Protein backbone atom coordinates (compact mmCIF):
# COMPACT_ATOMS: atom_id res chain seq x y z
CA UNK A 1 0.00 0.00 0.00
CA UNK A 2 1.45 3.39 -1.01
CA UNK A 3 2.05 6.02 1.64
CA UNK A 4 0.64 9.48 1.99
CA UNK A 5 2.70 11.98 -0.05
CA UNK A 6 3.73 13.96 3.03
CA UNK A 7 4.94 10.82 4.86
CA UNK A 8 6.80 9.60 1.80
CA UNK A 9 8.47 12.99 1.38
CA UNK A 10 9.58 12.98 5.03
CA UNK A 11 11.13 9.52 4.61
CA UNK A 12 12.93 10.66 1.46
CA UNK A 13 14.32 13.69 3.27
CA UNK A 14 15.57 11.47 6.11
CA UNK A 15 17.19 9.12 3.61
CA UNK A 16 18.92 11.69 1.41
CA UNK A 17 19.81 15.35 2.17
CA UNK A 18 19.56 16.07 -1.55
CA UNK A 19 15.76 16.08 -1.23
CA UNK A 20 16.03 18.84 1.38
CA UNK A 21 17.97 20.98 -1.08
CA UNK A 22 15.32 20.51 -3.76
CA UNK A 23 12.65 21.36 -1.21
CA UNK A 24 14.49 24.52 -0.12
CA UNK A 25 14.94 25.72 -3.70
CA UNK A 26 11.27 25.05 -4.46
CA UNK A 27 10.21 26.91 -1.32
CA UNK A 28 12.23 30.02 -2.19
CA UNK A 29 11.17 30.17 -5.84
CA UNK A 30 7.54 29.36 -4.98
CA UNK A 31 7.40 32.12 -2.39
CA UNK A 32 8.85 34.59 -4.90
CA UNK A 33 6.30 33.59 -7.55
CA UNK A 34 3.37 33.79 -5.12
CA UNK A 35 4.30 37.27 -3.88
CA UNK A 36 4.73 38.40 -7.51
CA UNK A 37 1.19 37.25 -8.34
CA UNK A 38 -0.23 39.23 -5.43
CA UNK A 39 1.73 42.34 -6.47
CA UNK A 40 0.52 41.95 -10.07
CA UNK A 41 -3.12 41.66 -9.01
CA UNK A 42 -2.86 44.64 -6.64
CA UNK A 43 -1.12 46.83 -9.23
CA UNK A 44 -3.63 46.04 -12.02
CA UNK A 45 -6.66 46.47 -9.73
CA UNK A 46 -5.34 49.72 -8.27
CA UNK A 47 -4.54 51.17 -11.70
CA UNK A 48 -7.96 50.31 -13.19
CA UNK A 49 -9.75 51.57 -10.08
CA UNK A 50 -7.92 54.91 -10.18
CA UNK A 51 -8.66 55.31 -13.90
CA UNK A 52 -12.34 54.45 -13.34
CA UNK A 53 -12.82 56.93 -10.48
CA UNK A 54 -10.28 59.61 -11.57
CA UNK A 55 -9.93 59.72 -15.34
CA UNK A 56 -6.76 61.84 -15.52
CA UNK A 57 -4.81 60.27 -12.68
CA UNK A 58 -1.26 58.99 -13.34
CA UNK A 59 -0.73 55.24 -12.90
CA UNK A 60 3.00 55.15 -13.60
CA UNK A 61 3.81 53.63 -10.19
CA UNK A 62 1.27 50.83 -10.61
CA UNK A 63 2.51 50.05 -14.12
CA UNK A 64 6.13 49.87 -12.94
CA UNK A 65 5.13 47.58 -10.06
CA UNK A 66 3.21 45.34 -12.46
CA UNK A 67 6.13 45.10 -14.92
CA UNK A 68 8.67 44.36 -12.18
CA UNK A 69 6.39 41.72 -10.63
CA UNK A 70 5.84 40.14 -14.07
CA UNK A 71 9.59 39.89 -14.71
CA UNK A 72 10.24 38.45 -11.23
CA UNK A 73 7.44 35.92 -11.66
CA UNK A 74 8.71 34.88 -15.10
CA UNK A 75 12.24 34.38 -13.72
CA UNK A 76 10.97 32.38 -10.72
CA UNK A 77 8.78 30.16 -12.87
CA UNK A 78 11.48 29.74 -15.52
CA UNK A 79 14.13 28.78 -12.97
CA UNK A 80 11.87 26.53 -10.92
CA UNK A 81 12.02 23.37 -13.00
CA UNK A 82 15.68 23.55 -14.17
CA UNK A 83 17.02 24.36 -10.69
CA UNK A 84 15.02 21.61 -8.99
CA UNK A 85 15.89 19.10 -11.74
CA UNK A 86 19.60 19.93 -11.39
CA UNK A 87 19.44 19.38 -7.63
CA UNK A 88 17.41 16.17 -8.04
CA UNK A 89 19.82 14.64 -10.59
CA UNK A 90 22.43 13.59 -7.97
CA UNK A 91 19.59 11.96 -6.04
CA UNK A 92 19.34 9.31 -8.76
CA UNK A 93 23.00 8.37 -8.30
CA UNK A 94 22.74 8.45 -4.51
CA UNK A 95 19.69 6.18 -4.38
CA UNK A 96 21.14 3.80 -6.96
CA UNK A 97 24.37 3.53 -4.96
CA UNK A 98 22.38 2.80 -1.78
CA UNK A 99 20.32 0.18 -3.60
CA UNK A 100 23.41 -1.53 -5.01
CA UNK A 101 24.93 -1.66 -1.52
CA UNK A 102 21.77 -3.30 -0.27
CA UNK A 103 21.77 -5.81 -3.15
CA UNK A 104 25.41 -6.70 -2.50
CA UNK A 105 24.66 -7.15 1.18
CA UNK A 106 21.32 -8.98 1.11
CA UNK A 107 20.88 -10.11 -2.49
CA UNK A 108 18.36 -8.92 -5.11
CA UNK A 109 14.89 -7.66 -4.22
CA UNK A 110 12.25 -10.28 -5.21
CA UNK A 111 14.25 -11.21 -8.33
CA UNK A 112 17.14 -9.94 -10.42
CA UNK A 113 14.75 -8.54 -13.03
CA UNK A 114 12.62 -6.76 -10.41
CA UNK A 115 15.80 -5.25 -8.95
CA UNK A 116 16.91 -4.04 -12.39
CA UNK A 117 13.45 -2.51 -12.91
CA UNK A 118 13.71 -0.70 -9.58
CA UNK A 119 17.30 0.46 -10.16
CA UNK A 120 16.58 1.86 -13.64
CA UNK A 121 13.02 2.92 -14.31
CA UNK A 122 12.02 3.07 -10.64
CA UNK A 123 14.84 5.38 -9.51
CA UNK A 124 14.42 7.48 -12.66
CA UNK A 125 10.76 7.93 -11.72
CA UNK A 126 11.77 8.91 -8.19
CA UNK A 127 13.99 11.64 -9.65
CA UNK A 128 11.01 12.95 -11.65
CA UNK A 129 8.92 12.77 -8.49
CA UNK A 130 11.39 14.95 -6.58
CA UNK A 131 11.94 17.34 -9.50
CA UNK A 132 8.25 17.81 -10.40
CA UNK A 133 5.86 16.68 -7.69
CA UNK A 134 7.81 17.96 -4.68
CA UNK A 135 7.83 21.60 -5.94
CA UNK A 136 4.11 21.31 -6.77
CA UNK A 137 3.41 19.91 -3.30
CA UNK A 138 5.34 22.77 -1.66
CA UNK A 139 3.38 25.37 -3.61
CA UNK A 140 0.09 23.60 -2.90
CA UNK A 141 0.84 23.92 0.83
CA UNK A 142 2.30 27.41 0.94
CA UNK A 143 0.72 29.47 -1.86
CA UNK A 144 -2.98 29.02 -0.88
CA UNK A 145 -2.22 30.23 2.65
CA UNK A 146 -0.63 33.43 1.33
CA UNK A 147 -3.47 34.00 -1.12
CA UNK A 148 -6.13 33.37 1.52
CA UNK A 149 -4.39 35.80 3.88
CA UNK A 150 -4.39 38.45 1.16
CA UNK A 151 -8.05 37.86 0.29
CA UNK A 152 -9.14 38.01 3.93
CA UNK A 153 -7.25 41.30 4.35
CA UNK A 154 -8.77 42.92 1.25
CA UNK A 155 -12.31 41.54 1.61
CA UNK A 156 -13.19 39.29 4.60
CA UNK A 157 -16.46 38.04 3.03
CA UNK A 158 -14.72 36.80 -0.12
CA UNK A 159 -12.00 35.29 2.05
CA UNK A 160 -14.60 33.29 3.99
CA UNK A 161 -16.19 32.00 0.77
CA UNK A 162 -12.83 30.85 -0.61
CA UNK A 163 -11.79 29.31 2.74
CA UNK A 164 -14.98 27.23 2.81
CA UNK A 165 -14.41 26.14 -0.79
CA UNK A 166 -10.79 25.22 -0.11
CA UNK A 167 -11.92 23.37 3.01
CA UNK A 168 -13.95 21.02 0.82
CA UNK A 169 -10.90 20.12 -1.28
CA UNK A 170 -9.29 17.79 1.28
CA UNK A 171 -12.47 15.70 1.32
CA UNK A 172 -12.34 15.17 -2.44
CA UNK A 173 -8.56 14.71 -2.46
CA UNK A 174 -8.65 12.11 0.34
CA UNK A 175 -11.42 10.10 -1.28
CA UNK A 176 -9.79 10.18 -4.70
CA UNK A 177 -6.31 9.74 -3.25
CA UNK A 178 -7.30 6.51 -1.50
CA UNK A 179 -8.42 5.08 -4.81
CA UNK A 180 -5.44 6.50 -6.70
CA UNK A 181 -2.70 5.18 -4.40
CA UNK A 182 -4.14 1.66 -4.57
CA UNK A 183 -4.24 1.78 -8.37
CA UNK A 184 -0.69 3.17 -8.53
CA UNK A 185 0.67 0.42 -6.31
CA UNK A 186 -1.14 -2.23 -8.37
CA UNK A 187 0.38 -0.77 -11.54
CA UNK A 188 3.90 -0.81 -10.09
CA UNK A 189 3.44 -4.36 -8.84
CA UNK A 190 2.31 -5.40 -12.33
CA UNK A 191 5.38 -3.73 -13.82
CA UNK A 192 7.63 -5.61 -11.41
CA UNK A 193 5.83 -8.87 -12.18
CA UNK A 194 6.09 -8.29 -15.93
CA UNK A 195 9.83 -7.53 -15.68
CA UNK A 196 10.50 -10.66 -13.64
CA UNK A 197 8.36 -12.92 -15.82
CA UNK A 198 9.86 -11.54 -19.03
CA UNK A 199 13.37 -12.26 -17.73
CA UNK A 200 12.39 -15.80 -16.73
CA UNK A 201 10.86 -16.48 -20.15
CA UNK A 202 13.90 -15.16 -22.04
CA UNK A 203 16.35 -17.15 -19.93
CA UNK A 204 14.33 -20.34 -20.21
CA UNK A 205 13.23 -20.03 -23.85
CA UNK A 206 15.62 -22.77 -24.97
CA UNK A 207 14.18 -25.24 -22.49
CA UNK A 208 10.63 -24.14 -23.27
CA UNK A 209 11.16 -24.69 -26.99
CA UNK A 210 12.71 -28.08 -26.33
CA UNK A 211 9.53 -29.12 -24.48
CA UNK A 212 7.20 -27.33 -26.92
CA UNK A 213 5.99 -24.90 -24.23
CA UNK A 214 7.22 -21.63 -25.72
CA UNK A 215 3.77 -20.63 -27.08
CA UNK A 216 2.23 -21.12 -23.66
CA UNK A 217 4.92 -18.96 -22.04
CA UNK A 218 4.42 -16.19 -24.61
CA UNK A 219 0.66 -16.31 -24.00
CA UNK A 220 1.26 -16.00 -20.26
CA UNK A 221 3.56 -13.05 -20.90
CA UNK A 222 0.88 -11.42 -23.01
CA UNK A 223 -1.60 -11.93 -20.17
CA UNK A 224 0.67 -10.12 -17.73
CA UNK A 225 1.03 -7.27 -20.24
CA UNK A 226 -2.75 -7.02 -20.62
CA UNK A 227 -3.10 -6.87 -16.81
CA UNK A 228 -0.58 -4.01 -16.75
CA UNK A 229 -2.61 -2.19 -19.41
CA UNK A 230 -5.78 -2.56 -17.33
CA UNK A 231 -4.18 -1.17 -14.19
CA UNK A 232 -2.69 1.71 -16.21
CA UNK A 233 -6.11 2.64 -17.61
CA UNK A 234 -7.65 2.37 -14.13
CA UNK A 235 -5.03 4.80 -12.82
CA UNK A 236 -5.71 7.22 -15.68
CA UNK A 237 -9.45 7.11 -14.98
CA UNK A 238 -8.88 8.10 -11.36
CA UNK A 239 -6.51 10.88 -12.50
CA UNK A 240 -9.10 12.32 -14.90
CA UNK A 241 -11.82 12.08 -12.26
CA UNK A 242 -9.75 13.93 -9.66
CA UNK A 243 -8.79 16.65 -12.15
CA UNK A 244 -12.44 17.12 -13.10
CA UNK A 245 -13.49 17.38 -9.43
CA UNK A 246 -10.85 20.01 -8.66
CA UNK A 247 -11.64 22.03 -11.78
CA UNK A 248 -15.37 21.95 -10.99
CA UNK A 249 -14.91 23.03 -7.38
CA UNK A 250 -12.51 25.86 -8.24
CA UNK A 251 -14.82 27.11 -11.02
CA UNK A 252 -17.85 27.11 -8.70
CA UNK A 253 -15.92 28.92 -5.97
CA UNK A 254 -14.67 31.58 -8.40
CA UNK A 255 -18.17 32.03 -9.84
CA UNK A 256 -19.66 32.41 -6.35
CA UNK A 257 -17.06 35.02 -5.37
CA UNK A 258 -17.68 36.90 -8.65
CA UNK A 259 -21.44 36.87 -8.04
CA UNK A 260 -21.13 38.26 -4.51
CA UNK A 261 -18.64 40.90 -5.67
CA UNK A 262 -20.96 41.98 -8.51
CA UNK A 263 -23.94 42.42 -6.18
CA UNK A 264 -21.86 44.44 -3.72
CA UNK A 265 -20.49 46.63 -6.52
CA UNK A 266 -24.02 47.40 -7.67
CA UNK A 267 -25.15 48.59 -4.25
CA UNK A 268 -21.95 50.63 -3.78
CA UNK A 269 -20.67 48.80 -0.69
CA UNK A 270 -17.39 47.76 -2.37
CA UNK A 271 -14.75 49.63 -4.35
CA UNK A 272 -13.88 48.47 -7.86
CA UNK A 273 -10.15 48.17 -7.09
CA UNK A 274 -10.84 45.79 -4.19
CA UNK A 275 -13.28 43.71 -6.24
CA UNK A 276 -10.82 43.41 -9.14
CA UNK A 277 -7.93 42.42 -6.85
CA UNK A 278 -10.03 39.74 -5.14
CA UNK A 279 -11.36 38.40 -8.45
CA UNK A 280 -7.84 38.17 -9.94
CA UNK A 281 -6.38 36.35 -6.94
CA UNK A 282 -9.27 33.90 -6.30
CA UNK A 283 -8.46 31.48 -9.18
CA UNK A 284 -4.79 31.48 -8.12
CA UNK A 285 -5.77 29.93 -4.78
CA UNK A 286 -6.86 26.73 -6.51
CA UNK A 287 -4.20 26.62 -9.24
CA UNK A 288 -1.36 25.17 -7.06
CA UNK A 289 -3.74 22.53 -5.72
CA UNK A 290 -4.75 21.49 -9.23
CA UNK A 291 -1.12 21.36 -10.35
CA UNK A 292 -0.08 19.23 -7.39
CA UNK A 293 -2.94 16.81 -8.10
CA UNK A 294 -1.87 16.54 -11.74
CA UNK A 295 1.77 15.99 -10.77
CA UNK A 296 0.73 13.41 -8.17
CA UNK A 297 -0.76 11.20 -10.87
CA UNK A 298 2.09 11.98 -13.27
CA UNK A 299 4.55 10.83 -10.61
CA UNK A 300 2.67 7.61 -9.90
CA UNK A 301 5.61 5.34 -10.76
CA UNK A 302 7.96 7.44 -8.65
CA UNK A 303 5.67 7.34 -5.62
CA UNK A 304 5.22 3.57 -5.83
CA UNK A 305 8.93 2.96 -6.49
CA UNK A 306 9.96 5.27 -3.64
CA UNK A 307 7.82 3.30 -1.19
CA UNK A 308 9.53 0.05 -2.22
CA UNK A 309 13.02 1.57 -2.31
CA UNK A 310 12.76 3.23 1.09
CA UNK A 311 11.63 -0.05 2.62
CA UNK A 312 14.87 -1.54 1.28
CA UNK A 313 17.44 1.19 1.93
CA UNK A 314 15.84 4.00 3.88
CA UNK A 315 15.44 2.32 7.23
CA UNK A 316 17.90 -0.56 6.87
CA UNK A 317 20.23 -0.88 9.85
CA UNK A 318 23.76 0.18 9.01
CA UNK A 319 25.53 -1.79 11.73
CA UNK A 320 28.05 -0.35 14.15
CA UNK A 321 30.98 1.99 13.62
CA UNK A 322 33.95 0.04 14.95
CA UNK A 323 36.71 -0.62 12.38
CA UNK A 324 37.06 -4.01 10.76
CA UNK A 325 40.05 -6.22 11.60
CA UNK A 326 43.31 -5.65 9.73
CA UNK A 327 44.55 -9.24 10.02
CA UNK A 328 42.98 -12.66 9.53
CA UNK A 329 40.08 -12.68 12.01
CA UNK A 330 39.05 -15.31 14.54
CA UNK A 331 35.29 -15.82 14.87
CA UNK A 332 33.20 -17.36 17.63
CA UNK A 333 29.58 -18.48 17.17
CA UNK A 334 27.20 -18.53 20.14
CA UNK A 335 23.74 -20.01 19.48
CA UNK A 336 23.47 -18.61 15.93
CA UNK A 337 20.18 -19.59 14.29
CA UNK A 338 20.32 -21.39 10.97
CA UNK A 339 16.58 -21.89 10.50
CA UNK A 340 15.22 -21.24 7.04
CA UNK A 341 11.71 -20.08 6.28
CA UNK A 342 9.14 -22.82 6.85
CA UNK A 343 11.25 -24.76 9.38
CA UNK A 344 9.15 -25.63 12.47
CA UNK A 345 12.20 -25.77 14.76
CA UNK A 346 14.95 -23.22 15.43
CA UNK A 347 18.31 -24.95 15.02
CA UNK A 348 21.25 -23.12 16.59
CA UNK A 349 24.99 -23.52 16.08
CA UNK A 350 27.93 -22.67 18.34
CA UNK A 351 31.60 -23.09 17.60
CA UNK A 352 34.96 -21.43 16.98
CA UNK A 353 36.57 -20.41 13.70
CA UNK A 354 40.28 -19.89 14.48
CA UNK A 355 42.27 -17.20 12.70
CA UNK A 356 44.29 -18.30 9.68
CA UNK A 357 42.90 -21.83 9.65
CA UNK A 358 40.44 -23.87 7.59
CA UNK A 359 37.05 -24.47 9.20
CA UNK A 360 34.61 -26.82 7.47
CA UNK A 361 30.89 -26.35 8.08
CA UNK A 362 29.39 -29.71 7.30
CA UNK A 363 25.77 -30.76 7.03
CA UNK A 364 23.13 -32.24 4.78
CA UNK A 365 21.48 -30.22 2.02
CA UNK A 366 18.92 -27.84 3.52
CA UNK A 367 20.38 -28.01 7.02
CA UNK A 368 21.15 -24.27 7.09
CA UNK A 369 24.81 -24.06 6.02
CA UNK A 370 24.19 -21.21 3.57
CA UNK A 371 22.15 -19.35 6.18
CA UNK A 372 25.07 -19.62 8.59
CA UNK A 373 27.52 -18.31 5.97
CA UNK A 374 25.23 -15.35 5.25
CA UNK A 375 25.26 -14.60 8.97
CA UNK A 376 29.06 -14.59 9.02
CA UNK A 377 29.42 -12.17 6.11
CA UNK A 378 26.80 -9.77 7.46
CA UNK A 379 23.90 -10.49 5.13
CA UNK A 380 21.56 -11.23 8.06
CA UNK A 381 20.70 -8.70 10.76
CA UNK A 382 18.87 -11.10 13.07
CA UNK A 383 21.27 -14.01 13.71
CA UNK A 384 19.49 -15.12 16.86
CA UNK A 385 22.67 -15.52 18.88
CA UNK A 386 26.01 -13.71 18.85
CA UNK A 387 28.91 -13.73 16.38
CA UNK A 388 32.19 -12.45 17.80
CA UNK A 389 35.02 -11.19 15.58
CA UNK A 390 38.31 -11.01 17.45
CA UNK A 391 36.30 -10.62 20.65
CA UNK A 392 33.99 -7.89 19.25
CA UNK A 393 30.32 -8.38 18.46
CA UNK A 394 29.83 -8.46 14.68
CA UNK A 395 26.88 -6.06 15.05
CA UNK A 396 29.23 -3.38 16.39
CA UNK A 397 31.52 -3.47 13.35
CA UNK A 398 31.06 -1.14 10.42
CA UNK A 399 29.19 -3.40 7.96
CA UNK A 400 30.75 -2.02 4.78
CA UNK A 401 34.30 -2.27 6.12
CA UNK A 402 33.69 -5.79 7.42
CA UNK A 403 32.40 -6.97 4.06
CA UNK A 404 35.34 -5.31 2.28
CA UNK A 405 37.61 -7.79 4.13
CA UNK A 406 35.66 -10.80 2.85
CA UNK A 407 35.60 -12.77 -0.39
CA UNK A 408 32.43 -14.84 -0.72
CA UNK A 409 31.73 -17.64 -3.19
CA UNK A 410 27.97 -18.45 -3.31
CA UNK A 411 26.46 -21.77 -4.33
CA UNK A 412 25.58 -20.69 -7.86
CA UNK A 413 27.98 -17.86 -8.79
CA UNK A 414 27.01 -15.64 -11.71
CA UNK A 415 30.02 -13.32 -12.04
CA UNK A 416 29.50 -10.03 -13.91
CA UNK A 417 31.74 -9.09 -16.83
CA UNK A 418 31.82 -9.68 -20.56
CA UNK A 419 35.07 -11.67 -20.56
CA UNK A 420 37.36 -13.49 -18.13
CA UNK A 421 39.63 -10.47 -17.68
CA UNK A 422 36.75 -8.25 -16.54
CA UNK A 423 35.48 -10.96 -14.20
CA UNK A 424 38.85 -11.40 -12.56
CA UNK A 425 39.78 -7.71 -12.41
CA UNK A 426 36.52 -6.70 -10.64
CA UNK A 427 37.11 -3.13 -11.78
CA UNK A 428 40.64 -3.00 -10.31
CA UNK A 429 43.44 -1.75 -12.56
CA UNK A 430 46.38 -3.07 -10.56
CA UNK A 431 45.80 -6.78 -11.34
CA UNK A 432 48.10 -7.91 -14.15
CA UNK A 433 47.34 -10.53 -16.75
CA UNK A 434 50.20 -12.57 -15.32
CA UNK A 435 48.51 -12.72 -11.91
CA UNK A 436 45.27 -13.77 -13.56
CA UNK A 437 46.93 -16.54 -15.56
CA UNK A 438 48.78 -17.72 -12.47
CA UNK A 439 45.68 -18.11 -10.29
CA UNK A 440 43.73 -19.77 -13.11
CA UNK A 441 46.58 -22.22 -13.68
CA UNK A 442 46.69 -22.96 -9.93
CA UNK A 443 43.03 -23.97 -10.08
CA UNK A 444 43.53 -26.07 -13.21
CA UNK A 445 41.43 -23.77 -15.40
CA UNK A 446 42.75 -23.10 -18.91
CA UNK A 447 40.80 -20.03 -20.00
CA UNK A 448 41.54 -17.25 -22.51
CA UNK A 449 41.23 -13.90 -20.72
CA UNK A 450 39.55 -12.32 -23.77
CA UNK A 451 36.99 -15.07 -24.21
CA UNK A 452 33.41 -13.78 -24.29
CA UNK A 453 31.50 -15.34 -21.40
CA UNK A 454 27.96 -14.02 -21.88
CA UNK A 455 25.70 -12.75 -19.12
CA UNK A 456 26.69 -14.22 -15.76
CA UNK A 457 29.41 -16.29 -17.49
CA UNK A 458 26.65 -18.46 -18.96
CA UNK A 459 28.98 -19.65 -21.75
CA UNK A 460 30.98 -21.66 -19.19
CA UNK A 461 30.01 -24.89 -17.54
CA UNK A 462 28.96 -24.86 -13.88
CA UNK A 463 32.36 -26.21 -12.80
CA UNK A 464 34.30 -23.67 -14.87
CA UNK A 465 32.11 -20.85 -13.61
CA UNK A 466 32.75 -21.94 -10.01
CA UNK A 467 36.54 -22.09 -10.46
CA UNK A 468 36.55 -18.72 -12.27
CA UNK A 469 34.60 -17.18 -9.38
CA UNK A 470 37.00 -18.78 -6.89
CA UNK A 471 39.92 -17.27 -8.81
CA UNK A 472 38.17 -13.91 -8.56
CA UNK A 473 37.97 -14.39 -4.76
CA UNK A 474 41.64 -15.36 -4.46
CA UNK A 475 42.83 -12.32 -6.43
CA UNK A 476 41.14 -10.11 -3.83
CA UNK A 477 43.52 -11.47 -1.17
CA UNK A 478 40.83 -11.22 1.54
CA UNK A 479 41.29 -11.63 5.29
CA UNK A 480 38.31 -14.00 5.41
CA UNK A 481 37.46 -16.42 2.59
CA UNK A 482 33.92 -17.84 2.75
CA UNK A 483 33.10 -20.61 0.28
CA UNK A 484 29.73 -22.31 -0.23
CA UNK A 485 30.16 -25.75 -1.84
CA UNK A 486 33.36 -24.80 -3.73
CA UNK A 487 33.85 -28.35 -5.12
CA UNK A 488 30.34 -28.85 -6.47
CA UNK A 489 30.02 -29.70 -10.20
CA UNK A 490 33.72 -30.66 -10.36
CA UNK A 491 35.20 -33.96 -11.44
CA UNK A 492 37.45 -35.82 -9.04
CA UNK A 493 40.70 -34.43 -10.45
CA UNK A 494 39.48 -30.81 -10.44
CA UNK A 495 38.00 -31.25 -6.97
CA UNK A 496 41.36 -32.46 -5.65
CA UNK A 497 43.14 -29.47 -7.21
CA UNK A 498 40.67 -26.94 -5.79
CA UNK A 499 40.72 -28.49 -2.33
CA UNK A 500 44.53 -28.56 -2.31
CA UNK A 501 44.59 -24.84 -3.15
CA UNK A 502 42.09 -24.03 -0.40
CA UNK A 503 44.10 -25.99 2.17
CA UNK A 504 47.32 -24.19 1.19
CA UNK A 505 45.97 -20.68 1.84
CA UNK A 506 46.86 -18.71 4.96
CA UNK A 507 43.84 -16.46 5.53
CA UNK A 508 40.87 -17.51 7.67
CA UNK A 509 38.80 -19.90 5.56
CA UNK A 510 35.23 -21.09 6.11
CA UNK A 511 33.94 -23.77 3.74
CA UNK A 512 30.38 -25.10 3.74
CA UNK A 513 29.94 -28.53 2.22
CA UNK A 514 27.83 -31.66 2.48
CA UNK A 515 30.78 -33.81 1.41
CA UNK A 516 33.18 -35.61 3.71
CA UNK A 517 35.97 -33.04 3.54
CA UNK A 518 38.25 -32.39 6.49
CA UNK A 519 39.80 -29.17 7.66
CA UNK A 520 41.57 -27.86 10.73
CA UNK A 521 38.19 -27.59 12.46
CA UNK A 522 34.73 -28.94 11.69
CA UNK A 523 31.35 -27.50 12.68
CA UNK A 524 28.45 -29.86 12.17
CA UNK A 525 25.08 -28.32 11.22
CA UNK A 526 22.42 -30.90 12.01
CA UNK A 527 18.67 -30.97 12.46
CA UNK A 528 19.01 -30.83 16.26
CA UNK A 529 18.15 -27.66 18.07
CA UNK A 530 21.70 -26.90 19.18
CA UNK A 531 25.02 -28.13 17.79
CA UNK A 532 28.42 -27.25 19.12
CA UNK A 533 31.97 -27.73 17.90
Describe it.
This protein is an alpha/beta fold. The chain has two domains: 310 residues, ABC transporter transmembrane region fold, CATH 1.20.1560.10; 202 residues, Rossmann fold. It contains 15 helices and ten strands. A five-stranded mixed β-sheet has the order 5-4-1-2-10, covered by helices on one side. Strands 6-7-8-3-9 form a five-stranded parallel β-sheet, with helices on both faces. Strand 4 and strand 5 form a beta hairpin. Helix 1 packs across helix 9. The radius of gyration is 32 Å and the shape is elongated. The C terminus is likely disordered.
Fraction in beta strands = 5-15%
**Ranges with pLDDT <50 over ≥5 residues?**
527-533
SSE pattern, N- to C-terminal: HHHHHHHHHEEEHEEHEHHHEHEEE
Helix-residue proportion? 55-70%
Average pLDDT score: 78
Rg, alpha carbons: 32 Å
CATH class of the largest domain: Mainly Alpha
- Count every helix, treating DSSP H or I runs of 4 or more residues as helices: 15
Between the first and last Cα atoms, what is the distance in angstroms?
46 Å
Q: Structural class from helices and strands?
A: alpha/beta
> Which strand order does the major sheet show?
5-4-1-2-10
CATH fold label of the largest domain: ABC transporter transmembrane region fold
- State the domain count: 2
Q: How does CATH name the architecture of the largest domain?
A: Up-down Bundle
Biggest pleated-sheet summary: 5 strands, mixed
Amino acid sequence: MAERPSDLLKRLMRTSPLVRRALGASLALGLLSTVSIIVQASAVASALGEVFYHHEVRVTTQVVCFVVATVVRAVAVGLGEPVTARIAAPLRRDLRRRLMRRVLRYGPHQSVDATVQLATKGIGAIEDYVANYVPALVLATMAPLLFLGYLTWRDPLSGVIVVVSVGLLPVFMILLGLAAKEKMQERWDDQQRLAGYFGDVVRGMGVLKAHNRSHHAVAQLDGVGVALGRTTMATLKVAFLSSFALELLSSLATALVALVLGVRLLDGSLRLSVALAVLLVTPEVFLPLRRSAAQYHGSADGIAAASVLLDLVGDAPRGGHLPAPSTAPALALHDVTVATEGRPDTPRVSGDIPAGQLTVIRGASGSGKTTLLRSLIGQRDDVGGVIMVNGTDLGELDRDRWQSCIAYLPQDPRPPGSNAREVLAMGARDISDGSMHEVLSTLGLDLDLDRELGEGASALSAGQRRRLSLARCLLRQPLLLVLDEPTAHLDAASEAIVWRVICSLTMTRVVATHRDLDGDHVIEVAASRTTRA
